[in-house]
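Q: Hi! First time doing this. I have a protein sequence and I read that you can turn it into a structure. Is that right? Here it is:
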Amino acid sequence: MRYSKYIGVVAAAALIAACFLPWVVVPGLNITLNGLNGKVNDQVSFGTQIISHSFFCLLMIVFFVLPGVGVKRANVVIGAIHVAWAVKNYYVFTACRVGECPEKKIGVYLIVLLSIIMLVMTLLAQVKFKNEE
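A: Yes, that's right. Below is the predicted 3D structure, encoded as structure tokens:
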């Protein structure tokens, strides 16, 4: 696909922005969790997920821009790891605990959707081979 690297870069930037959006709201505790704030209370904390998502996104942006077969193959692996990390965050943040289920917000859906878009764009990347004559 001709524009796959541009779509991948835009999706990566949008994913970093989605970390600032609310992911879930826990109504009983009256707290909102997102990629920056994963602390429920002193005993339960999910950490700051924006660090890992930013790392994967920035690495993928660099690999989208660089030419070469090896870089494109590595980008597929990093994209698959990033999708797994986003799905893990979806399950961890949206799981019901102690009979209370959090209310899902747009951010938690966006991180999964945008990471899948990034993985698809790595699979559709154009690779130019040198003609051996």
